[in-house]
Write a structure and sequence with these properties.
Blueprint lengths: L6 E5 L4 E8 L2 E8 L4 H15 L9 E5 L5 H18 L3 E4 L1 H6 L6 E8 L2 E7 L9 E4 L15 E4 L2 H8 L2 E2 L6 H11 L31
Helix pairs in contact: 1-2
């Protein structure tokens, strides 16, 4: 039996700094709620988690990271950190969608959703044999949601599951465990099969875009 991997995973795609450490089959996790400051908070938090388990960075087999969808700045923070750590340690970094993480361990026809604000939601459909649609940005309207056969008895999970469930007649359910726990477990499963670097999962355009006009010329 191959040794159990040691995985450190983290996620800053929402108003939190979340991390989990999987070692010898045991999982320790920590979620610090915070609206800003994740960039300064993340690395000391990860150091604390390693030290609490008596580990060093070199003991890790891989880095796991939540790639979104979510807050643009938060996603950039975690994905950049994961890539930097992977490069410095010579270990793989494995990106996991937060929508997939919410669906981890659940069976049947499942809709995973996240609040995208402004009466919109990120939505992805997962099948009962592990297949999945592409994640999409939907208006909170019945005619903009993915068309599903009601006889398939779809279930929905996520932070706007109740609203969409009431709208569509889908059964809201709770996810198993936490999102950061699922990100870690999925990363461990993909340790020997994933070769791509993690990339941010941006489904919507940024709210703030750079100005189209050229800046004024500075005359010395």
């Amino acid at each position: 039996m191959p040794p159990k991997p040691t995985i450190l995973a983290f996620d800053t795609s929402a108003a939190h700094c979340a991390a989990a450490l999987l070692c010898e089959g045991r999982l320790a996790q920590r979620v610090d709620e915070m609206a800003r400051g994740q960039a300064e908070h993340l690395m000391p938090m990860l150091e604390d988690m390693l030290q609490a388990d008596g580990l060093m960075w070199s003991d890790l087999d891989a880095i796991g990271v939540g790639v979104g969808p979510g807050n643009f700045t938060g996603i950039r923070i975690s994905v950049s950190a994961a890539r930097g750590l992977a490069l410095g340690l010579g270990k793989p970094a494995i990106g996991v969608s937060n929508l997939e993480a919410q669906a981890y361990g659940l069976e049947g026809i499942l809709v995973s959703c996240l609040d995208a604000r402004r009466d919109r939601a990120y939505v992805q459909v997962f099948g009962d044999i592990g297949s999945a649609s592409q994640p999409t940005l939907c208006d909170m309207r019945r005619d903009d949601m993915p068309p599903l056969n009601p006889k398939s008895e779809p279930k929905i999970v996520g932070n706007v599951a109740t609203q969409i469930g009431d709208l569509m007649g889908w059964q809201p359910i709770r996810q198993r465990g936490t999102t950061i726990e699922a990100i870690t477990q999925i990363a461990a499963r993909r340790l020997h099969s994933t070769t791509e670097r993690p990339a941010p999962l941006y489904i919507r355009t940024a709210d703030a875009a750079p100005p189209r006009d050229l800046p004024p010329t500075v005359i010395p």
